[in-house]
From TrEMBL:
<protein>
    <submittedName>
        <fullName>EAL domain-containing protein</fullName>
    </submittedName>
</protein>
<feature type="domain" description="EAL">
    <location>
        <begin position="24"/>
        <end position="275"/>
    </location>
</feature>
Length: 275
């Protein structure tokens, strides 16, 4: 039965038709070979200063282009990569590729101030994250201060030795940002002890900022929190002029979102943002 459904799913790729189990197994098998088959690539989304429109950084976002499925969303394959352990390989590749791209931009005369790279909680569990980042920085020659690592609150709260690793990364000279801030659970007391420089307000709060009084209140609270803790605050998922104006009005001058740019290929970034 599973086999018949699997064959069906082969022709009509859709999780609802193949059933979760079969779908997962097939994706897993494909995912495992994605790097050797050169199917992964990175897009880069600009981070800008709202009042000047100046480029302050880019976030690297991984993309999987499967020959049959087409583009598979990271929302789908990152959790799978995390469950299977493939994330450590993938995460290393993303880090290395992002650093190499920064060096290429620098060589091409585009001074991208910094690159943000997402780290999964699983990348902290093996205890090698500091050594890995150090090795990649040395191999690519990227200055550590050009790299910002994005972790979620769960990394800070759930990793046994989070403090040690976060401090180790900080000692390398790389920056740290808390991604999707406000959606997880983090203790402010804990946060205060971490050498973090940036809070990223989650897109879910920005989306309905003008319709939902709670979201508005949360966004303002995060901006205030960042201010009082001397952290920089960047809003994710800014899609409209009104959202940008709101943020500026409330003291947040950094944003990332479709209003400024979608995640793009490296050459598009070069074309559009080169002074
Ligand atoms: P994230 O790190 O919070 O990244 C922001 C996501 O929001 C990206 O989705 C981006 O394309 C999307 N986005 C940016 N601006 C807007 C906007 O104005 N409107 C809307 N609707 N969306 C916007 P993406 O690229 O699909 O990535 C989803 C998530 O997958 C990321 O969330 C991150 O958690 C994870 N991810 C992506 N690349 C990597 C990676 O290399 N490693 C790890 N561990 N996770 C990654
Ligand atoms: Mg991120
Ligand atoms: Mg986010
Ligand atoms: Mg996320």
């Amino acid at each position: 039965q599973a086999k018949a459904r699997g064959r069906n799913g082969y022709r009509f790729y859709s999780p609802s038709m193949t059933g979760e189990g079969v779908e997962r197994l097939r994706l897993e098998a494909w995912l495992r070979r994605s790097l050797e088959k050169d199917e992964m690539f990175l897009n880069y989304q600009p981070q800008v200063e709202i009042d000047t429109g100046r480029l302050v950084g880019v976030e690297a976002l991984v993309r999987w282009n499967h020959p049959e499925l087409g583009l598979v969303s990271p929302a789908r394959f990152i959790p799978l990569a995390e469950d299977t352990g493939f994330i450590s390989q993938l995460g290393e590749w993303v880090l290395a590729e992002a650093c190499r791209q920064m060096v290429r931009w620098q060589a091409a005369g585009l001074a991208v101030p910094k690159i943000a790279v997402n780290l999964s909680v699983r990348q902290f569990e093996r205890g090698t994250i500091v050594a890995t980042v150090d090795r990649i920085l040395r191999a690519t020659g990227l200055e550590p201060r050009r790299l910002q690592l994005e972790v979620t609150e769960s990394v800070i709260m759930n990793t046994g030795d989070a403090r040690t690793y976060i401090n180790g990364l900080h000692d390398l000279g790389v920056g740290l940002a808390i991604d999707d801030f406000g959606t997880g659970y983090s203790s402010l007391a804990y946060l205060k002890q971490m050498p973090v420089q940036t809070l990223k307000i989650d897109r879910s709060f920005i989306q309905d900022i003008h319709q939902d009084a709670n979201d508005e209140a949360i966004a303002i609270a995060i901006i205030q929190l960042g201010k009082s803790m001397n952290l920089s605050v960047i809003a994710e998922g800014v899609e409209t002029d009104e959202q940008a104006a709101f943020l500026l009005r409330h003291g947040c001058n950094l944003a990332q979102g479709y209003f400024y740019s979608r995640p793009v290929m490296p050459d598009d970034l070069l074309r559009r943002w080169l002074p």
